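User: Please fill in residues for this 349-position structure.
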């Protein structure tokens, strides 16, 4: 069976990556490409890498234009997708790359996003360990008709720390995550601090001091994995590269946990995962290895001097960090093989 799909936000980075992946998906037919200010324009002008779709005309994001599809992807600015989704029939599978439906706590949403909470949808990170018994998030995605795709920083952070918390290897307090993201994470809209002259050849932190809106999203997933509240200090940084996120997470190890036990827990969590790979001991991940792939590469070490577990992950913010997670979750929702239309192979150099 072929499913018809509309992609709204088709002219942006996230929507463009969804379209790129859907072009290689055997069970999906892209029938509508929608956006807003660029309605009426030829997609080829705005997404010149999407050759197969170059002659499509962008339509406006309206309930009428999105109606009648089996699947609707939303890749809109935060706060825009809730109203659009509410106008779609319950049977339509809606996959939202934005943040609107990720958080379970209305007060956390209001604090970090400043608008009314729109509700919570199943979280689109199939490999996430969701409880101390080692359950995985993919079970909540099978047959789902609404999917909230994770933020790109939370994907690498959650995959880094959830197995350790679920297995009780580390204390739930004093979790520290520092991530470096490529500039595409900020979207296409022109912003002075993202000009090439500002970002090339340098790095800088932002959202420091617990102010980044991904802090509650990461804490939410880690608290579920460990079965208790967690405290996280999260610091994002902007790196001079178009795509990619390197996350380094550390946590206080519980007494008596050695290197072998840590590796055993991560091998058990991810050994059968098609898109999360624990690297051989001593090989540390590089963002270049996962460009344009749906892969997350992970390495860990025990810092005996500081008594902390150190876990690093890399992913492509637009692929596994957004569009790949969206397609992988959609596959589960539709009952298709989870890897359909996705590759774990990157590009090089
Ligand atoms: N970039 C990333 O790495 C990630 C992004 N996301 C999420 O995906 C979403 C899109 O991000 P991104 O692609 O980076 O952003 P971009 O700024 O690159 O693209 C935004 C898209 O939304 C459309 N749009 C803007 N305003 C409206 C509106 N009022 N109604 C309908 N469409 C509108 C734009 O269309 P037009 O230009 O025609 O106005 C454009 O297609 C965000 O919620 C973001 O958080 C999630 C994970 C990672
Ligand atoms: C570099 C950069 O600006 N990154 C974005 C995160 C983008 C992302 O993936 O998250 P959302 O889906 O929640 O927008 C930021 O810090 O807001």
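Assistant: Residues filled in for all 349 positions:
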């Amino acid at each position: 069976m072929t499913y018809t799909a509309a992609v709204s936000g088709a002219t942006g980075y996230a929507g463009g990556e969804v379209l790129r992946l859907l072009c290689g998906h055997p069970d999906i037919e892209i029938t509508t490409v929608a956006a807003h200010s660029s309605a009426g324009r030829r997609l080829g002008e705005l997404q010149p890498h999407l050759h197969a779709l170059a002659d499509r005309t962008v339509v406006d994001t309206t309930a009428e234009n999105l109606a009648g599809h089996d699947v609707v992807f939303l890749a809109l600015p935060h706060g825009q997708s809730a109203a659009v989704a509410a106008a779609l029939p319950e049977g339509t599978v809606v996959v939202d790359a934005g943040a609107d439906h990720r958080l379970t706590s209305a007060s956390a949403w209001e604090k970090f996003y400043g608008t009314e909470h729109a509700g919570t949808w199943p979280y689109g990170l199939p490999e996430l360990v969701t409880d101390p018994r080692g359950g995985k998030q993919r079970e909540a995605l099978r047959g789902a008709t609404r999917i909230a795709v994770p933020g790109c920083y939370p994907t690498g952070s959650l995959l880094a720390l959830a197995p350790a918390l679920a297995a009780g290897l580390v204390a739930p307090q004093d979790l520290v995550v520092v991530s470096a993201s490529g500039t595409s994470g900020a979207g296409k809209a022109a912003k002075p601090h993202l000009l090439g002259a500002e970002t090339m050849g340098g790095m800088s932190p932002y959202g420091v001091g617990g102010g980044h809106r991904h802090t509650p999203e990461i804490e939410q997933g880690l608290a579920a994995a460990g079965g208790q509240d967690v405290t996280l200090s999260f610091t994002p940084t902007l790196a001079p590269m178009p795509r990619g996120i390197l996350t380094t997470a550390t946590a206080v190890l519980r007494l008596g946990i050695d290197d072998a036990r840590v590796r055993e827990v991560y091998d058990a969590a991810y050994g059968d995962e098609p898109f999360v790979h624990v690297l051989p001991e001593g090989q540390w991940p590089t963002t270049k290895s996962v460009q344009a792939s749906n892969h997350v590469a992970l390495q860990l070490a025990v810092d005996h001097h500081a008594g902390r577990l150190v876990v690093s992950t890399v992913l492509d913010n637009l692929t596994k960090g957004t569009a790949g997670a969206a397609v992988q979750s959609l596959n589960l929702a539709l009952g298709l093989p989870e890897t359909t239309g996705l590759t774990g192979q990157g590009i090089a150099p």
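For context: The longest strand covers residues 28-35.
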